[in-house]
Amino acid sequence: MLNRILTILLLFFSINTYSQHKLPELRVSKNHRYLQTKDGKPFFWLGDTGWLLFTKLNSEQTGLYFSDRQQKGFNVIQVMILPSLTATNACGDSALINKNVAHPALSGYWDHIDSMIDKAAAKGLYMALVPIWGNNVKDGSVSISDARTFSSFLAGRYADKPNIIWLNGGDTKGNDSTNTWNAIGNTLHQQDPHHLITFHPRGRLQSSEWFHNESWLDFNMFQSGHQSYSQDTTGKAYGEDNWKYVAADYQRTPAKPVIDGEPSYEAMPHGLHDPRATRWTAGDVRRYAYWAVFAGAFGHTYGHNAVMQFHRPQDGAGVYGVKEYWTDAVNAPGAAQMVYLKKLMLSHAYYDRVPDQSMIAGGTGDKYQRLSATRGKDYAFIYTYNGRNISVNMGHTKGKNVKASWYSPRDGSTKEIGTYPNKGVMVFDPPGDIQDGNDWVLVIEKI
């Protein structure tokens, strides 16, 4: 009898635990601008780049990382499945037999990934997975046929995991091995139609440049990259203006959601490769986040130099001039501040929000002087990175009168300003002195 009772309790616990892990599948919203859950709730993507998670962390370490990111409000973790064709996990298990993607090892490495995906689901985290990092395809190590076989393996293994998003590509150009990327995208789309798919491109490039009209591409992703204004002198030469990528994709037809999947990482040297260079700060990562989202992005991905590579004592010098271990870097100020953007965007009507620079009177400003505006029917948000005055063309939202307040991207606090007639031009003076990093969001709401 006792054994029977224990069996029943164990079964109940297992079922209850599974139900808690069953995250809702994600969908593109009806207006093709945002993501939502299968049951229609808004999903604001707040991502973290944990690229080397599967190859460097054991189960216990992964649990600590997931708990930290859950507590800080993240809901998506971007990870490489195969950083290289010789990939092994922290236990030394190989992913592939003879470095051939058509022949996964089928145990060890993959059992670990299965377990980590379930562990993420238990923390409310979606896993945005890159099947094969781009350089492995670009150098000719993966044939189109083998890519299809591997993609079919992934689709079959993870089709029933609700917390999967596919990131095709991996820091590469879409016109390098285009047929292979389409083979991966089409195979995943056809054999795993319940999970969203995009393409993670090389720095300062956009998935839309090659794949916007492909049926497998559910949303666009760009990598604004790690270069400063002075360093980005070729191609589009957008520099730090990541909002320009959003604006370009926002105008494309058919409409598809867009996100910055890799902006400048906190504590990364400008330009990546010179450890003596100035490093990106919490203020910089906030600026990238608010600029992109207010320009029309459906969410944002954050990154930290030490966390994205999970730098450990046994790794020696690491790469990109990393100075910290990941266990300390998870507490970087920029990571903790990202949740305030998520909370702000989910605090008001979601699906009617549009970018609207016409709200700004007297010019929007260039570079760090830029003012960025977005609004719904009953509210508006305007972001300043340095706390300069904001002149507003009133009347773009509903209501005879409106209330105004300051929202701090640094700590999520709100300071009431007052109530005003919703007409004419109003000038708002943010708290504090004008200086980079004294960023504020002007919130205007219908009374």
Textual characterization of the structure:
The protein has 447 residues and is an alpha/beta fold. The protein has two domains: 23-345, Glycosidases (TIM Barrel, Alpha-Beta Barrel); 356-446, Sandwich (Immunoglobulin-like). It has 13 helices and 22 strands. The strands form six sheets. Strands 10-9-8-5-4-14 form a six-stranded parallel beta sheet. A six-stranded antiparallel beta sheet has the order 15-16-17-22-19-20, covered by helices on one side. Strands 1-2-3 form a three-stranded antiparallel beta sheet, with no helix packed on it. Strand 1 and strand 2 (35-37) form a beta hairpin. Helix 1 packs across helix 4, helix 6 (144-158) runs parallel beside helix 7 (178-191) and helix 9 runs parallel beside helix 10 (282-294). The longest helix is centred in the first third of the chain and has 20 residues, at 2-21. The termini are far apart. Residues 1-20 have low confidence and may be disordered. Residues 29-351 form the Apiosidase-like catalytic domain. It comes from Chitinophaga oryziterrae.
Quick synopsis:
The protein has 447 residues and is α/β, with parallel strands linked by helices.
